[in-house]
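Appendix B, record 7
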Amino acid sequence: MSESGTFAIVGAGLAGAKTAEALRAHGFDGRIVLLSAEPHRPYERPPLSKSYLQGNAELDTIFVHSPTWYTEHKVDLRLDTVVTAIDRHDHELTTRGGERLRYDKLLLATGATPRRLPVPGSDLGGVRCLRTLDDSDRLKAELRPGARVVVIGGGWIGLETAAAARTADAEVTVLEHAELPLLRVLGPEMGKVFAQLHIEHGVTLRCGVTVAALQPGVDPARVGAVRLTDGTVLDADLVIVAVGVTPNVDLARSCGLNVDNGILVNRHLVTSDPDILAAGDVANAYHPLLCRQLRVEHWANALHQPVVAAATMLGETASYDRLPYFFTDQYDLGMEYTGYTDPGGYDQVAIRGDLDARAFIAFWLQDERLVAAMNVNVWDVTEPIRELIRSGERVDATELADLNVPLAQLVRN
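Structure tokens (predicted):
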């Protein structure tokens, strides 16, 4: 399809860059302006807490496109450019520098911002979060043998940075408010697996605790300890705060778009304004298979939603109905998770394989229907898992757990 006009994309992470790519792939030959608040060309975030942070991936491998791709595909990439306002009536963007840019269609891929720890001392030097390439570079330089690292938060980013710190031979303590890490995401059955994984690799894991304050050390401007509400004081050379993110909705809210835990969009990724779409971490999208709004803060959405966004911008009918998917790599554990379940939104967990050897698949079921599955150090099973979930058919938990029954056999065509 060949169209003219100007399509603007605010946010040049994976979702924004891939939307530009998809527009060109769909034959759009109009103007594409890709605006990034960051100084780097678009890059992928998963390596920032995994391979790149651990020094196993070179910088060039994390970028979405080569440096010349944007020129070759006539994408006007503007770095260090912050959009401050959207005029929906006149279809104009305003940047911090005062420039006004008219658009015909607009995609918001503004991502999310790490939550700050609301305690005294959170602004001290040596208190880090991990979201950007610059964050990862800073952490990489500070993760040294013997460094006392306290990670606050036992979610994915917290555990991945803890693994990177232990790989760098730092002394690591992970603090988690809940009874287990990843409890809200995986439930107690699988939360225990990750707790034991980190303990075996030398992490001190303290669950059910709350941070009261971050305290300075010898240098009054730099963190030296973490004080818990029970009075415990933990020495720290470096504190990594990983307590979740907040979707960047200020721009959308200020121009009157509907927001609620992200920018609300329909199955076509269209906001309450028909000429504005949203994708990636900031998009709270209606999922036609799950029949609910869902905001997913994972790489797969940022990778796959742009195809639907581009088609919709070009006037085609397209829906985003891909099941949530994410992955992690920690020490010698590799994992893929497919599907979605709310905390407590299941009544059974079936295990196929060896839980103790951490080579297994966990299946979450509700009313004998598969809602999510996680394969740990077991590969090439995502497709039959996806088909089983999408089918909505009842499935026998004993067959799911039976290694002698191929997963593909359980998928009824």
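Remarks on this record: Residues 183-200 form the longest helix (18 residues). DSSP finds eleven helices and 26 strands in the chain.
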